[in-house]
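Hey Z.,

So I finally got round to the thiamine diphosphate thing we talked about over coffee. Here's the setup:
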Amino acid sequence: MAQSLVRKIGRLGLISAKERNSASLYVTKIRSATTTTTTTTTTTGEESKSINLFTAINQALHIALDTDPRAYVFGEDVSFGGVFRCTTGLADRFGKSRVFNTPLCEQGIVGFGIGLAAMGNRAIAEIQFADYIFPAFDQIVNEAAKFRYRSGNQFNCGGLTIRSPYGAVGHGGHYHSQSPEAFFCHVPGIKVVIPRSPQQAKGLLLSCIRDPNPVVFFEPKWLYRLAVEEVPENDYMLPLSEAEVIREGTDITLVGWGAQLSIMEQACTEAEKDGISCELIDLKTLIPWDKETVVVSVRKTGRLLVSHEAPITGGFGAEISASIVERCFLRLEAPVARVCGLDTPFPLVFEPFYMPTKNKILDAIKSTVNY
Amino acid sequence: MAFWLSRSRSITNLLEKRIGLFKILHERSKGSLLHSRISGEFISKNPHEFSTKSAAAFLATGQRFNSIKTGEQQVELASSDEDDDENQALDFPGGRVAFTSQMNFISESSGKRVPCYRVLDDDGYPITDTIYEQVSKEVAVRMYSGMVTLQIMDTIFYETQRQGRISFYLTSNGEEAINIASAAALSPDDVVLPQYREPGVLLWRGFTLQEFANQCFGNNADYGKGRQMPIHYGSQKHNYLTVSSPIATQLPQAAGVAYSLKMDKKDACAVTYMGDGGTSEGDFHAALNVAAVMEVPVIFICRNNGWAISTPVTEQFRSDGVVVKGQAYGIRSIRVDGNDALAVYSSIRMARQMAINEQRPILVEALTYRVGHHSTSDDSTKYRAVNEIEHWRAARNPVARFRKWAQSNGWWSDEDESELRSNIRKQLLQAIQLADKTEKPLLANLFSDVYEDHPPNLQEQEKSLRETIKKHPQDYPSDVPL
Ligand SMILES: Cc1ncc(C[n+]2csc(CCOP(=O)(O)OP(=O)(O)O)c2C)c(N)n1
Ligand SMILES: [Mg+2]
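And the result:
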């Protein structure tokens, strides 16, 4: 309970005017297998409402279906609104042929989505929990990711977006808590995107849906209800593969994504009290990732800390560390710090011990700065 | 343990009609179980004892695969009846296939739905002409008590979750008969691979209310060491593999378990459970196929309860339910009334006998209804009619039906009922209190069992965690001993 409250406060702290501005005036050109559309969206001066993350996802899905008659939303239990309410109202509004339940079969859901997308549609598939995405691993890794490449770009399934809730939730145990993003980051041909807040979720999801590549979009389920933020009501998109500096600083660079950012933000705030100035970067897109933004930041601060909930070994933090050491070796003043989940399955009773907490991050910030 | 006929008739006729296997079994010589059973040779209260004898008889005479051979011969006979000319058949690697000049597509359905085997009518009276295994007073009372215990467990644990004392719960309401009667029909040596809505099997095998409570509270007496969510029970001493949340993963594993039992010539089978939703997963199909090809003694029990969370069976499959899927894989299958404890008991007894004696998989589809919400995270009134739930809760209640039958036999009374209920309630409340008071597992359990040994990365992480805890004790729950 106390921890949830801390998360909520941290989340609200993330929402700055700067962040809101980044959503505006983003122009993008989308190309799909059959259509070429140009969408220009402006958020300045538009209506916005304070909503939570699942409502933001829901808004994005409404817009996606509304703006493209060839868009479909499907997955287990999506008809009645989904177990996290993300698809509420969609079946009523857009009809059963565009929003529907599938049989309980993840490989079926993704395979179906690939076929649908290959025919020039936007297939928006839901996997009920990221922990249950593995039956679809083959379809994602061997099929979706290689569909374009193996055909010499004759075919593609770029219209496919797979949404799935990931991460800790306080009481999920092994199979309702995992963060499997690193498995997918090892797969050229797909994109992996994770939003940190409602406003980000809506803009990024719309970009993923309209991106001409298959995307896995992991939603931080702990934030579905907890994170509340002003979200523009109109149709807007946020750029993929562009990281965002959400807090500027000079002593150390922190890189993270999704729900972990608010924990990192709290650590930054506390470090500041000790006179340490932290720069916090939201990676947003894990592959292909925006190395340049991180490199520029580390060149400035000389130090790097990466944090994620997934087990440390083979986590995406390892890739970031290695890349930054390659690019910034002479500028680094301390080893890259990683504050991550433990190399154990995700435990129920021991969850607080497993997690990369604010104080673990704070300690690592201090020891890195004082190295 | 004789077959019980509620009205006398030619036994042979009835068997032929009710059990499509009669011919096969009949053609077997001395080892024929059905014969033995009808003639009352093997009369025993203990299913384990019963099958030890029968399987031993089979192994001794080397007739384990007799019925399969017989089956093949029948198929060949049938085809040569139709096509006398050798050239009229295709010499296909998978066996001879007759040619036909008719362009006939096999229909997507047989037109008529597969009927559902039942013994007791809604009022708890045995249906005329039905065949079932007789259940002694002792077993019947134990079965009924098990079902009631399961109900009380569900009510109280559900409340406990609502009070925030445990993090999650999921009831078996409406599926008490499948849980208890299938368990009663098995031997304790049969290895069970559950989905998650089958705690009654474990209860039947002697897992105590205290053991259930310990798991739900994740305390240091929980065999799973507090690592998994509530209801993820498992007990080695009860041959009950630990529940895993991912749907259907247990099914192909059951075929592997069964292969081991086969290789070890054990008088036991693997038994695995799944929901209707589970049959849509690739693992279900993989399991049926590999089990059939490997000729392993496994019983697949599908609890078709109408719903997979909010998805009704009409959106799960377009076949006539699950029972018909067996034949496509070469698996013998039956559909039973899952709310009729006697039908479940009898069919699982028979399934077990065939699985072990003939070394083959069997598929049982038990029709039932998930009366409760999917879990404590679900509100099923959002997607299904309240009167549908009520109908099944009241008119089709499996516990009430079995009670009527037991009561009409003079085996159960209102006094027995209230005594049982208050006893179980008391025991359970005590168990919960104790489980709540019992310490959480030691922190070391976070790192153990990841591997059989303790690799350096985990040693290092444990050391570093302990330092962090010393520095920031306020970040950690005080009830987990270090
Ligand atoms: C691979 C996988 N996908 C999705 C889920 C989420 N989930 C949990 S239970 C369930 C429905 C299962 O329905 P059914 O098999 O009919 O069993 P019942 O709950 O009705 O007993 C779903 C979709 C899961 N646990 N595992
Ligand atoms: Mg079901």
